[in-house]
């Protein structure tokens, strides 16, 4: 299932996926962003710049160019949280950060992730619901507009690749 909500220059997206693996395994696979390029075509490269602590890492991500645009790059902080009660979800939160050791490069368009991430709910011992959330600014809109007519198709394709990767 896919939901979108537009307010001002912010587009919010929610994708809900049913996955036939335990929630702790989905959490383990999704919280390591170096795996992301295996299923998300928007991730060309992804490297860990800094392990802040056991639950937080800073990554450098590059995305392939869209016709008429430079490739994009991001410096993101990924925070992961285990549930404190069985009814609560696993959480993986993502947002852009500034790192002086990683200034913008002329060959990339430095882009920003306002807020994104996953919530993973346990449905049973062998299945879970993975919800992906993202808020995008107008700066990311041209990238999205390149396939907005097929945007839900592109989002759906990425979600199907994610499910395939997890299972």
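^ Assign residues to that structure.
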């Amino acid at each position: 299932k896919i939901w979108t909500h537009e307010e001002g220059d912010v587009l919010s997206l929610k994708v809900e996926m049913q996955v036939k693996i335990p929630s702790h395994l989905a959490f383990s696979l999704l919280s390591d962003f170096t795996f992301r390029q295996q299923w998300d075509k928007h991730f060309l490269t992804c490297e860990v710049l800094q392990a802040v602590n056991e639950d937080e890492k800073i990554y450098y991500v590059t995305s392939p160019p869209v016709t008429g645009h430079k490739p994009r790059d991001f410096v993101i902080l990924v925070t992961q949280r285990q549930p404190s009660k069985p009814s609560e979800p696993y959480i993986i939160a993502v947002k852009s950060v500034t790192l002086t050791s990683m200034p913008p490069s002329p060959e990339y368009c430095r882009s920003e992730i306002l807020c994104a991430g996953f919530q993973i709910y346990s449905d049973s011992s062998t299945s879970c619901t993975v919800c992906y959330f993202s808020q995008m600014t107008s700066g990311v809109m041209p990238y999205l507009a390149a396939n907005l007519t097929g945007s839900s198709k592109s989002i759906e394709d990425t979600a199907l690749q994610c499910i395939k990767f997890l299972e």
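The chain has one domain: 2-166.
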